Amino acid sequence: MDITKLTATELSAAMKEGKTTALEAAEVMLARIEQQDEILNCYVTVDGEGALRQAKEVQEKIEAGELTGPLAGVPVAVKDNMCTEGLLTTCSSKILGNFVPTYTAEAVRQLKKAGAVILGKTNMDEFAMGSTTETSAYGVTRNPWNREHVPGGSSGGSAAAVAAGECFYALGSDTGGSIRQPASYCGVVGMKPTYGTVSRYGLIAYGSSLDQIGPLGKDVTDCAAVLQAISSHDTKDSTSVERQDLDFMSALKEDVQGMRIGIPNDYFGDGLDEEVKEAVLKAAKELEEKGAIVEHFDLSLVEYAIPTYYTIAAAEASSNLERFDGIKYGYRTEDYAGLHNMYKKSRSEGFGEEVKRRIMLGSFVLSSGYYDAYYLKALRVKALIKKAFDDAFEKYDVILGPVAPTTAPRLGASLSDPIKMYLGDIYTIAVNLAGLPAISLPCGIDKNGLPIGLQLIGDCFQEKKLIQTAYTYEKVRGSFGLEEQGQRTERPMQGNAGVEKVMGSSCMEQEGQRHE
Amino acid sequence: MANIISDETIEYVGILAKLELSDEEKEQAKSDMGRMLDYIDKLGELDTTGVEPMSHVFPVQNVFREDVVTNGDTREELLSNAPEQKDGMFMVPKTFDS
Prior knowledge:
Chain A is an alpha/beta fold. Chain A has helices at 8-16, 22-40, 48-63, 106-113, 156-163, 180-186, 220-230, 274-289, 305-320, 339-350, 353-366, 371-395, 418-423, 429-433, 463-477, 482-490, 497-515, and strands at residues 43-46, 75-79, 117-122, 169-174, 189-192, 212-217, 260-264, 293-297, 398-402, 438-445, 451-458.
């Protein structure tokens, strides 16, 4: 049996039937990482020894009937901004280049309880600030669909690792789209839960009021299973919400009869790529054919979400990142004159350009004289944006739109113009401001052979409606992934399959060259 | 509408942010921040009179707990991450002259 073709939940089921073992799964993943990751660079740290040790322990517990959950024994990759006891956690920054946490993030602890085997830590934009995984201090991650393109960000390593089959699922974090956008660029499923659903304890903070951990997986079922495993009420996170119903897998039903779906006209204006638009609207059509009630409406305030976000996120980042001072952990400069000079030089040498840019902006908008005009103003607009969503959810169960205006850009094309890069977050960012849950799943492939993402947004605590809608769409759409894409290119059937074939073979050529 | 960031402002922000920038970086920061603020000024188009600033989407309150120690003694592990340590303490540069 080729276990790499299985989803996480299928793999765990196969283990329980004795068809494979946790050890075999970990070994297969480590071999694939060894084979591919030198080029893709999905991982900052691979914990081979630790993974094999965990796998043996987990396998014993599966055989003893102690671990029975849907993720038991499955290898996972964790974004490198979640603390893992005894395992390097860098946030893809030079300033944390040697940081070994003394405790494990609550979400990761919950996964381990469910029998996860942690393979290693994935690459990301430094401190999750970026949309391409190019601001990492440890090199760029390449998109497995086309290695000359970015995987998206900031959870680019996690998304690429799932797409490339270097893990069965991964954890990411989403502050302004950092799970959904890389999931979209890499053709996998990513979910950002309602704020407060997953504990942030042990997640290295960027924008605390916006950050939320969530799953990236091969399909909706896996994401539902992972979300169910990591959701918890945690007294160690004062913004953790006590939720009654966390049985997300019960929403895996193929049924959208009567589901009210709203399509915001404001998400289909200037800047949206024509192919992305077509693919997303086609998905809406397919849901309508399955019985959903689909309507177009005006959400309003969409163009204000990005300036609001960058004010709030930068303000919170400037405060959260003050702890990196070269004293308790992390990088300290070699030469300095006195305490304050040591702080300044350690931070200036330890942080990358984008991080410094946001700390500066955040310090400015929080400074006396500007606090009201910028920071409080942004918090007021945030209230208006939340109200716009509240109004929309009085009429609709789910809001449907694109994840990003385009498919994955080429490596090196985004960083030169920060504001242009920020504009790429236009459809994802408001979700974080309003604390809403949202899911991103593949809905097509563009002429360049790159995946297109569909975004479904729900009201607070309505993950189940999202999962049900996404699951139904996934059934209509059929299987999707780098493997399927490769297979389809061998027997072109319809539409733009010819183009797919060209792209598919060029990827194969690249692969061939690199293996020589 | 264009925001011009002065040398004094960038100097002051550098102090607040605890960052030391080279002259070249300062010029870049002035231009970047000016452009960002021009962009953020868009929020001025909205009338927010009477709108309460929303820091959290849910009505979160302070969470209290009993003042009891729940974690173990991890002093050695914690100190092992420090750039410099001495006698079970973090080492910092001399902070004042006697």
